[in-house]
Amino acid sequence: MKIQLAKVPVVIFLSILLVFFYLLTIDRNPSKIPSNLLNKNVPYFETKNLIKDEIFISKKEFGKEVILVNFFATWCEPCRNEHRYIKNFATKKKLKIIGINYKDNPNKTKKWLEELGNPYSDIPLDKKGEIAIDWGVYGIPETFIVNSKGIIKYRHVGPVTEKIYKEIDLLINKIE
Amino acid sequence: MLPSLGNCALWLSLFFAILQFIISNKNYNLKYTSISVFGLLITSLLSFFVLIYSHIISDFSVLNVYQNSHTTKPILYKISGVWGNHEGSMLLWIIVLTFFNYFIFKLLNKKNLIFVLKTLKIQAFISIGFILFTILTSNPFERISPIQENGLGFNPILQDPALAIHPPFLYIGYVGLSAVFSLSVATLSLNNNEKIVWYNYMKPFVATAWSFLTLGIALGSIWAYYELGWGGWWFWDPVENASFMPWLLATALLHSLIIVEKRKSLQAWVLLLAILSFLLSVLGTFLVRSGILTSVHTFALDPSRGMYILTFTALLGVYSLTLFGIKSKNFLDKNYFTLFSKEGSILVNNILMTVACAVVFLGTTYPLIIEVLTKNKISVGEPYYNSTVIPIAIPAILIMGIGPILSWSEDKKIKFFKKILPSIFLTIAMTVFIFLIYESYSIIGIAGIILSFWIISNNFFVLIKKNNKNPISMIIAHMGIGLLIFGITGSTVWQKEKINRMKINENTKIENYNIFFEKISEVKESNYVAIRGNFLVYDNDQNIIALLEPENRYYPVTKNFTTEASIHTNLFRDLYIVLGEGNLDEGWIVRIYHNPLVIWIWIGALIIFIGGIISINNNIKKLKILNK
Amino acid sequence: MKKNFFIIFVYIFFIQFFINHSYTVEPEEMLKNQEQELRARKISKNIRCMVCQNQSIDESDAPLAKDLRMLIRNKIIKGQNDTEIYKFLSDRYGDFILLKPPLKSSTLALWFLPIIFFIIGILVIFNHTKKSKKI
Predict the structure, then answer these.
(1) Is residue B163's pLDDT more than 80?
(2) What local confidence, expressed as pLDDT, does residue C24 receive?
(3) Fewer CB in 10 Å around end: N or C, chain C?
């Protein structure tokens, strides 16, 4: 019995190492957390819309077509850097993009969009950040893909880069 | 020119390590072993000093200097910056390895020839692994062209005295365990006719590694305490855990070696512990440098480095643990102990240390395992470790109080109870006394105070006893732990915090102190600019007892903002101030902490270290006598 | 032997209660009601700051941490219990935001293995020691 016991450490050691080997070989980002809202309905919210008079009501807007949701703010430097990709989605891919303005000054937002261009069909204002919390947002900018049934299918934390742009592009083609 | 010399030296050290690996065999002339040991030591030291020199003179043709240094860095931090980055820290690992290699070699004599040569062979293999890793994936002597005018600066958070000496101490701990590992594997690979008191060889190395690991971890905590701005000093961060686990096993090892020596029992167990503690060290290195998780401590994220270290760890682990699986039966014994004896208490300590280590390992790796199995990410944070590790620590500490007093073999319960009666009384008296001062009734606080005074009282009475047979090193080290727990209890349970928005000339009261916001000024230093708040601390009698000057700094080169707390320390409490954001009109957010007994944590750790050092000395003397 | 195990179990469960209920300090958004504020601090200590390295929102300076601290206090005032508040946050941020891993099928091993390790340890001790000789 004791002799068998002595072989146990090697076995345990190897199994643990296998876990680590696996983690090294897959493509993962240790600091990115997967969204808990994937495959769930868009959280309900209603708030002022910067560029339209009516109140933005989420139930009315989602559930008809594929929509990109982009959480942004004028005070956020990476938001500025990714903006051209968001614009590309609007112009080249003809996607409807809703830009949720996080904890911002509406006047500054207007000026920012005048300077950089406006790809958003609607700009719900999230003055207190409560909508962002409902979406599980923790690091703006964040970009979501919502399918035509109003289900969240994808979330990216951080600015859209060339690589992410291509990733979203591919997904858009597959998602209905 | 000089950096190429450094690179050459590094390659030469690889050569000497390989040489040592091949010729550490009784068939070869010992002269060659001697050459390889010294060659390894000298070449690795040479490459290390070349890198330091390149940093000092700001030679930006060297990529490592360019990435991590800047002309405006104070010279002390230019030097400590050498081991503050990944590539330089590998050179530090290597020179500590070669030093321990040399110390093993120094023990060589006619009687232990085969044993020490086997140990040197394994130590050489480990050295080859680390030097090759450095050369192939982390060479600090890589050059760049064109040469930039100045470097990329350095993370300002790391420009700090405690952090400067934290790695060397920690590495002596981690790498000291390599010698312990090599000795264990050498012991396991001995043939039946080769008998040697391997445990006497292991003892000084374990004591060294353990002592330096203790202080190294404490230095990291000291840094976290005054740098991170909310008075915390331990976060169960994966990388902190990576240093705590080898420490727990090394503690177990330190104690069970005593039993091996006195009773020739638990030999197989000790040999396994020796292997596991080093494997955990190397695994810890892996966690920090592989990019597998993020933490304040992680170096540059690079999976290829992770692959290498993991493969190397796998080789070391599979070889040593398989050898253990096969050969450990030669070291088994049928000795039973009585529970109520010194051996019994050491056995319990070992079990508890090992269980604690297993739990910390479980908590640290579980999020990674879950990620592999379910693609979900979970957190295992402080509440988990508090719930699991503290219940294990409490009996361990209780036993630590009575262990030294128990006799070898059996102790009669009534006689024993009479022995510890004075310390029970002293503990109760001190506990009541403390609670009269602090007037706060928290169960965990009471438990902590009782435990710390339990240890202090017991050791005090052992110390003053006339025919005390216990080594002074043990008494000192245990006292240190008692003080450590005293400090931990005070600072965790009775910390008081006040957060206010203060304008200039306003004051805030905390405990018995009045904190007066005198002024705000701008400060300019060689590599940063700062806003500094001047706070005067008045006691109950309106006397000024301290001037606290917290700063918010901006380092232009790395574009980093940092908050520097200002701390006034005495034996009873720390007063700790942090300046938040603000302006002249609205005032500033000021956070003030009253942290009781914090300094006893650091004093305790230092005393543990001193106890350990004394025991190293005694162990080496004993070994020299044995070798004559 | 059975009696010893019972004592150990009682000890472990007893300790749990006191370890995670030790309180310290007072933040700036404190509630007027002491009991509610204490609850808020306890919950905050268990919520991970999503943008920091291994800190709880109770200790963090980050804006999101502050928002979540306020949110928790608002929910306490509205009368929600701890479970509801934790669920609200983990529904949105996943189990990752809970510093004390919830007890689920996926975390059974995490919570029960320490007890198993402890029991194995006790068994090893009993295995290696013999009863003291009676005089």
Answers:
(1) yes
(2) 28
(3) C
Domain that holds residue B42: 1-159
Q: Which CATH superfamily is domain C24-99 in?
A: Cytochrome C biogenesis protein (1.10.8.640)
Please tell me which residue, B321 or B289, carries the higher pLDDT value. Answer: B321
Q: What is the pLDDT of residue A108?
A: 94
Closest in A34, A103, A128 to C94, CB measured: A34
Q: Looking at chain A, which residue has its C-alpha nearest residue C94? A: A36
> A109 vs chain B: nearest CA distance in angstroms?
25
Most trustworthy range by pLDDT among B361-375, B560-574, B598-612, C42-56 = B598-612
Tell me if the domain spanning A33-174 has CATH number 3.40.30.10: yes
- CB contact under 8 Å between C28 and B500, yes or no, is yes
Q: Do A24 and B313 touch (CB under 8 A)?
A: no
| C75 pLDDT higher than 50 | yes
**C102 in contact with A at a CB cutoff of 8 Å?**
no
Considering the domain architecture, whether residues B441 and B512 belong to the same structural domain is answered as no
Contacts with B593 from chain C: Cβ below 8 Å = 25
ipTM tops 0.90: no
**Which of B227, B273, B355 should we substitute to test contact with C (largest number of C Cβ atoms within 10 Å)?**
B355
Chain B residues near residue A33 by CB distance under 8 angstroms:
377
H-helix or E-strand spanning residue A101:
strand A96-102
Are B151 and B27 in a shared domain?
yes
Q: How many independent structural domains does chain B possess?
A: 4
pLDDT at C133: 44
Contact residues on chain A for C67, CB-CB shorter than 8 A: 128-129, 133
Whether B51 and B14 map to the same domain: the answer is yes
Q: Which residues of C touch B447 (CB under 8 A)?
A: 18
Q: Check if C71 contacts A (Cβ < 8 Å).
A: yes
Contact B447 C18 (CB under 8 A): yes
Determine whether the interchain pair C95/B354 forms a contact, defined as Cβ–Cβ distance below 8 Å. no
Instruction: Report yes or no on B234 lying in a domain.
Output: yes
Domain assignments of chain C as residue spans, ordered by start: 24-99, 101-130
Q: pLDDT tens for residues A80-128?
A: 999 999 999 998 878 899 999 999 999 999 999 999 999 999 999 999 9
- Give residue C124's identity as a one-letter amino acid code: V
DSSP class per residue in B299-340? -S--HHHHHHHHHHHHHHHHHHHHHHHHHGGGG-----EESS
C2 lies within 8 A of chain B by CB: no
Query: Is residue B522 in a domain?
Result: yes
| Residue B287: predicted pLDDT | 79
**In Å, how far are A72, B10, B139 from B4, measured between CA atoms?**
49, 10, 11
pLDDT of B375 reads 81
What residues of chain A, 67 to 86, have a C-beta less than 8 Å from chain B?
none
Task: State the pLDDT at residue B230.
Answer: 73
**Pairs from A151-156 (Cβ < 8 Å, separation ≥ 24):** A151/A39, A151/A40, A151/A41, A151/A42, A152/A35, A152/A37, A152/A38, A152/A39, A152/A40, A152/A41, A152/A42, A153/A38, A153/A39, A154/A38, A155/A34, A155/A35, A155/A37, A155/A38
Does B349 have pLDDT greater than 70?
A: yes
> Which phi and psi (to 5°) does residue B139 adopt?
-75, 120
Asked if the model's pLDDT at residue B435 lies above 90, the reply is no
Query: Cα–Cα distance between B401 and B409 in angstroms, integer?
Result: 18
Q: Could you tell me which residue, B42 or A30, shows the higher pLDDT?
A: B42
Contacts of residue C78, defined as CB under 8 A and 6 or more positions apart, other chains included, come to none
| B509 SS3 class | strand
pTM for the predicted model, two decimal places:
0.91
Q: Do A22 and B372 touch (CB under 8 A)?
A: yes
A9–B272 C-beta distance less than 8 A: yes
Closest residue in chain B to residue C96, using alpha carbons only: B378
Looking at residue B581, the DSSP 8-state letter turns out to be: E
